[in-house]
Design goal:
With 350 residues, the protein is mainly β. It is 2% helix and 47% strand.
Length: 350
């Protein structure tokens, strides 16, 4: 099913219930879309593009809902597809986690946008945890986005079995880890208190209320509930989950590990569901080589995103070092006892 909007101006598309993975195709038009309810499907729900001759689409999406059933695994990775002639404004547009018995769940996650060549619009998707709340995309995929994040090291995630969500792989033993990724390209992440370590094991709540770092032993009936302990940073963050499948016999010293990862933009809610294939519709990667020794800039107090650049704040001299991925115009402020400011004067590409 699809709706086709061609060369229409001042169209209001409001309060529609769109099931079956319905796609709205918008061509050379001016559209305001508000409070629409989409079931996610095998293609993006919005397909916005020019017919040629540099005609543009001017589209505003407000409070639209993309519904991801927790037991659905056939959906594509993107919610919206746009071309370089699209001018798009986004306000409170999220994916929502739902179950087969509760379509009204208000679990908000960030949307993902695909470019016309079917590649990821990383300048939006890497910041989807805040860009889904309020952002603008101009011609040639230029992003306008501003946001301040404090207490960058505060979010924490734990795990528990969840009987209401199925597990769609065969039973196995797993370990889970997490990262809080504030800025992927600049390697700005949550770190531990006393080091630059930025990958953390996910502890498992036992039935008696205690917590342990032991492996999760999963059957083919129960998925995993992951949750944030603290309501930190408004529960808005990019969560990178790493899942290691553990095989072999520790008594024979022949353990083997197979790691996968997934990035999930959290937009205010606290819960994540792993059904084996995906986490709230964000699909696990192919296996990759994983190391716990990854590090990030420590001593970060706060950082601010301003239309493609960042301002970072620390209380320690030399606490933040610009490395690969930092851009001309980025700023680092030392707000400790000896205040100082570093300006990044050119892009750092290596």
């Amino acid at each position: 099913m699809e709706m086709f909007i061609l060369k229409v101006v001042r169209l209001l598309f409001n309060a529609n219930h769109c099931e079956g993975g319905m796609q709205v195709e918008i061509v050379d038009s001016s559209v305001v879309s508000n409070n629409n309810y989409f079931h996610r499907g095998e293609r993006p729900n919005y397909y916005i593009h020019s017919s040629g001759n540099s005609d543009e689409c001017v589209v505003s999406l407000q409070n639209d809902m993309f519904i991801q059933l927790q037991d659905s695994n056939n959906n594509n990775s993107y919610d919206i597809n746009i071309d370089k002639y699209t001018i798009l404004k986004i306000s409170n547009v999220y994916r929502y986690g739902a179950t087969a018995v509760d379509f009204g769940k208000m679990y908000t996650y960030g949307i993902n946008i695909q470019k016309a060549d079917e590649t990821s619009l990383d300048d939006f998707n890497d910041y989807s945890y805040i860009a889904s709340r309020n952002s603008k995309i101009g011609a040639n995929y230029s992003i306008s986005l501003s946001h301040t994040i404090r207490n960058v090291n505060s979010p924490h995630i734990y795990a528990a079995m969840q009987s209401g969500i199925g597990w769609y792989l065969t039973g196995a033993t797993y370990r889970y880890y997490y990262q809080i990724v504030w800025d992927k390209s600049r390697n700005i992440k949550k770190t531990s208190t006393n080091s630059s370590q930025c990958i953390f094991p996910i502890q498992w709540y036992n039935s008696d209320g205690s917590m342990t770092n032991s492996n999760l032993i999963l059957t083919d009936s129960n998925g995993v509930l992951l949750a944030m302990v603290e309501d930190a940073c408004g529960n808005c963050s990019m969560v990178r989950l790493i899942r290691e499948k553990v095989t072999g016999d520790p008594n024979l010293n022949n353990l083997e590990f197979e790691a996968q990862e997934v990035y999930v933009p959290m937009c205010g809610n606290r819960v994540l569901y792993d059904n084996g294939i995906s986490v709230c519709g964000y699909k696990w990667s192919e296996p990759f080589q994983f190391t716990l020794q990854e590090t990030s800039n420590k001593n970060m107090e706060m950082f601010r995103i301003i239309d493609g650049n960042v301002e970072c704040f620390t209380k320690r001299i030399g606490g933040i070092t610009p490395t690969k991925g930092w851009k001309c115009g980025d700023v680092i402020h030392n707000i400790g006892s000896t205040p100082s400011t570093i300006f990044v004067s050119e892009d750092i590409n290596q």
